[in-house]
Sequence to fold (440 residues):
Amino acid sequence: MTTLTSPPATLTYNARARRYTPHPLYDNSEVFRMARRQLELVAEQTELDAGVLERLSLPKRAMVVSIPVRMDDGRTQAFMGYRVQHSLTSGPSKGGLRYHPAVDLGEVAALAMWMSWKCGLMNLPFGGGKGGVACDPASLSQGELERLTRRLTEELLPVIGPRMDVMAPDLGTDEQTMAWIMDTYSMKVGYACPEIVTGKPVEIGGCVGRKEATGRGVVYTIMEALKELGIEPTQATAVVQGFGNVGSVTCQQLAARGVRIIAIGDRYGAIINPKGIDIAALTQHVASGKLLRDFPGAQRLPSNDLLTTECTILVPAALERVITEENAGRLKCRILAEGANGPTTPEADVILAEKGIFVIPDILCNAGGVTVSYFEWVQDLQQFLWSEDQVNQKLAELIIGAYHRVRKLARERKISNRTAALTLGIQKIAREKARRGLFP
Fold:
């Protein structure tokens, strides 16, 4: 293996000649290895400064904390928490905070890396960040969740701030979580600081339309793909994995445009109705505390069959690495719209290309959330408020513009949509790093 040390500015990185040296902190995670493999694939086709690429291959900063929480029964339980800042070159790091039992440092580092490329693609003044706590939020009371969140914020105070690192909701967290973080941080600095987080309640500085933004962005890109492929929305069917914030809004927005939603699944099970699922009724059913799998307007479907159900549009909107080389060959969709982060492995990408499936990659498809988070951050800094129509109009403008930049590059270079999106995001950050130089 060749070791690159202090390369001249003209030296480029040849990923075919060298694979990254395994890193003991991160490379035990399949998700992180996947993220770095995607970076390598872009490097194989793009001339990037070797020193810059070396810096992009690892996070700038990672913090691991123990979070002791007094539980409702009086005992003390310690949870592991993580915050990773992949890049601070373009501005403060930006990214969600997730609560999930499978959270580990490698997964959080991979998600932070993807967030960097996403912000680069969308031309946002952020670097990528991500955080998480290894816990099952469904098993914790509201009081336990609040104490967990406030103690996490206290532990992360040295590395967060409106100009340093701005968190947002993710899997297992919501606007209430962000409200607790804002309040804890504000108590420490001595004044109300709504710009410390995004995705918080509107009453304390949140942005109207932020909660729906990721799902709306997914649907905006799907509509552009349908238009490009000559498919009428009313003639299309959709299957959605996940009925949380992203999946539910995606279903609502697709249904409003005439797309028939025929199957939906979540962590508890899946349902199918070839005639179309009544999304409004399903939303009320789930909101009342009932399980999605018990919805009377559809039949149960084995969860393993959800992703391979025949449809026009498949939307994985749950966890990463759900489409692999084992099941990719059995997908029966025309469009794969990645509402989740990293749902498709590089090995599966090869199979999807052979099948001619039109992939809308995650860093484009689900970029609506971070885009409207940017709007919220700007409004908080300026103490200004935009209307929901303004927010949705600007979101559509930015994400549709990014869609067409990706498609243009993909056609010009005869590369996949994923490679085109990653190339645009990575090159923007690489240019910024090269311009700023290496200190000292």
Summary: The longest strand covers residues 61-70. Confidence is low (pLDDT under 50) at residues 1-18.
